[in-house]
Specification:
The protein has three domains: 5-84, Arc Repressor Mutant, subunit A (Orthogonal Bundle), CATH 1.10.10.10; 91-158 and 263-298, Periplasmic binding protein-like II (D-Maltodextrin-Binding Protein, domain 2, 3-Layer(aba) Sandwich); 161-258, Periplasmic binding protein-like II (D-Maltodextrin-Binding Protein, domain 2, 3-Layer(aba) Sandwich). Helix content is 41%, strand content 19%. It is built from eleven helices and twelve strands. A hairpin with a 2-residue loop joins strand 1 and strand 2 (56-59). Helix 1 crosses helix 2 and helix 1 (5-17) packs across helix 3 (31-45).
Length: 305
């Protein structure tokens, strides 16, 4: 059975105002139209809700009980309607990203996307947990891993170079050999796909003394620790591009062994690619990737091809 929602709203207005005339003025309708809606509601309920009292109306006992029962719901609907008004033309884009990429690469660049797409409300969720697209309302994810997720659209964000870095006050650029590195405090990001033992082996030097190492579970923490002069970090040019561009970090090693990987991947269900907001975000990501490559290339640091 369909609910006479219009008639319920009219009754609520009459009960609040205690007058058919004032309710009609509030609703921008005629008094006779209000009376007709009240009559329709009474017929639907099978009971009388209002009775005349002088020049006004009063609620019957049934009317009082009904008004009390519906008031919370009607006011909640009115509040929701008011809140949503003005947002009809806006599209919400929900993006999930690993915390380090969100902090170090994505968030600093988002202003250009928002300026170019004022009708899109963007929500950025930073987490390492992979999205279950069948259950979670996420439009697109930038996921850390090896890029093997069958059934999903997967595109590498960028090929990264992994470099030893430190604050320029800790050591000048190009002032160390690879063998010097192992004598310093080494900063680990233990979720990274490239670790110090791997780098030292590629450089052809003995392992470092692990008693002086410090470990973090996020790349952005390792980058910040290196900026603060804590030691040497082994990090991705994707995660520390701002620090490299500003000179807050330098590579202290002469001719470090090249390590290039793609560790961050754009992921979403294939049908999400048909959403205009996802297309816009993908195009923007690709443009930003090209700009990042140019910035890193200008520093003489190969960001990959």
């Amino acid at each position: 059975m369909s609910l006479p929602l219009r008639a319920i709203a009219v009754f609520h207005a009459v009960a609040r105002n205690g007058s058919l005339t004032r309710a009609a003025s509030e609703l921008f309708v005629t008094t006779s139209a209000v009376s007709q809606q009240i009559q329709n509601l009474e017929e639907h309920l099978g009971t009388t809700l209002l009775t005349k009292a002088g020049r006004g109306v009063v609620l019957t006992e049934a009317g009082e009980r009904y008004f009390e029962m519906i008031t919370g719901g009607v006011e909640q609907i009115a509040d929701a309607t008011q809140r949503i008004r003005g947002f009809r033309s806006r599209s919400v884009l929900i993006v999930r990203s690993t915390p380090s990429l969100a902090t170090k690469w994505l968030r600093p660049r988002l202003g250009t996307f928002l300026d170019a797409n004022p009708d899109i409300e963007l929500r950025l969720n930073g987490t390492n947990e992979p999205t279950d697209f069948s259950r979670e309302a996420v439009d697109i994810e930038i996921r850390h891993g090896e890029g093997r997720w069958p059934g999903l659209f997967v595109e590498g964000l960028a090929e990264e170079s992994f470099l030893p870095v430190c604050a320029p006050g800790y050591a000048a650029a190009g002032s160390m050999t690879a063998d010097d590195v192992r004598r310093h405090r080494l900063i680990y990001s233990f979720k990274s796909q490239v670790q110090w033992p791997q780098w030292l082996a590629l450089a052809g030097v003995p392992p470092a003394d692990e008693s002086r190492r410090v470990l973090f579970d996020r790349s952005h923490m390792s980058v910040d620790a290196a900026v603060d002069g804590m030691g040497l970090a082994l990090e991705s040019t994707l995660m520390m591009w701002r620090e490299l561009c500003s000179g807050a970090l330098v590579c202290p090693v002469q001719s470090p062994p090249p390590i290039k990987l793609t560790t961050q991947w754009i992921v979403c269900p294939l049908d999400h690619l048909h959403k205009s907001k996802v297309k816009l975000f993908l195009d923007w990501l690709r443009a930003e990737q090209q700009e990042w490559k140019a910035q890193i290339g200008a520093l003489g640091l190969d960001a990959g091809e």
